[in-house]
């Protein structure tokens, strides 16, 4: 069970996604629930929104398992997010509310005026003015911060994803084990987050009945931003007036909750207590 500064935010993730889904119908989230277990056995500890289920319940949820665990954690409210699809839907929603969106426009620097106040950004196609800049550039955040003399302790963390061809209905929930995070994303396709394509294929085939025909379709390897302590870095930077940091882990999980809180802080001027443990000045 996760603890730390963002534990409360993580506990609200499902509710926040449901809020966004109500505002943007068609948000690509599959509310399948999730099952988690580890090989060492023993009765695990359930967190908020979770329950402990036995072998019989596990087989009801995932009937294709070869050797179901004695105990597992079942989170019925969990969903599988299509991050690209959600991003596209959010961008479309922002545009519908009057936001100007500049796609494929590289940001090269944050601009400051003579007094040191943020004045906008420099891009590959010219400057964009603004009195507040939210630096939410993922793994590029550290370099952009360094150009202003601001240390942002975030490093790239490799994140491989494997897309697999599989029989429809092979996996019913989001399955999390010591071998993979696995979910069915379309009829005949799975996505696995794991370390090795070879080990992932072997693990899927040995975990599920009827998985002998599972094959690797492609591999994608991204670089996710990982703060030094594994917790989000969110808030204003005192030494650079107008600069606001937003570096997540885990970004897909926390995006709706943190996005709403950041908007309240910047637009309404409300200091959100839920973000108090995530401030940049803790480093």
UniProtKB/TrEMBL annotation:
Record-level Gene Ontology MF annotations: oxidoreductase activity
Keywords attached to this entry: Oxidoreductase
Domain FAD dependent oxidoreductase: 44-264
Coiled-coil intervals: none
GO cellular component assignments: cytoplasm
Protein name, per record: Glycine/D-amino acid oxidase-like deaminating enzyme
Provenance organism: Actinophytocola algeriensis
Source species taxonomy: Bacteria, Bacillati, Actinomycetota, Actinomycetes, Pseudonocardiales
């Amino acid at each position: 069970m996760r603890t730390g500064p963002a534990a409360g935010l993580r506990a609200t993730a499902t509710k926040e996604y449901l809020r966004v889904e109500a505002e943007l119908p068609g948000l690509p989230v599959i509310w399948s629930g999730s099952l988690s277990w580890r090989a060492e056995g023993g009765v695990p500890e359930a967190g908020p929104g979770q329950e402990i289920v036995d072998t019989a319940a596990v087989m009801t949820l995932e009937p294709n398992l070869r050797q179901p665990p004695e105990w597992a954690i079942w989170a019925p409210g969990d969903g599988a997010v299509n991050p690209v699809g959600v991003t596209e839907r959010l961008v479309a929603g922002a545009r519908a509310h009057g936001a100007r969106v500049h796609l494929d426009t590289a940001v090269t620097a944050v601009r400051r005026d003579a007094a040191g106040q943020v004045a906008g950004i420099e891009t590959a196609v010219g400057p964009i003015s603004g009195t507040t800049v939210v630096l939410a550039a993922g793994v590029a955040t550290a370099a952009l911060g360094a150009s202003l003399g601001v240390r942002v302790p975030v490093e790239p963390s490799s994140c491989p994803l494997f897309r697999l061809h599989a029989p429809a209905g092979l996996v019913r929930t989001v399955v999390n084990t010591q071998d993979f995070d696995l979910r069915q994303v379309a009829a005949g396709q799975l996505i696995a987050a794991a370390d090795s394509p070879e080990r992932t294929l072997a693990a899927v085939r040995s975990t599920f009945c009827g998985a002998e025909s599972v094959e690797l379709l492609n591999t994608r390897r991204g670089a996710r931003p990982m703060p030094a302590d594994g917790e989000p870095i969110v808030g204003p930077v005192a030494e650079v007036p107008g600069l606001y940091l937003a570096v997540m882990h885990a970004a897909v999980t926390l995006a709706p909750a943190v996005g709403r809180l950041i908007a309240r802080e910047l637009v309404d001027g409300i200091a959100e207590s839920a973000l108090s443990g995530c401030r940049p000045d803790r480093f």
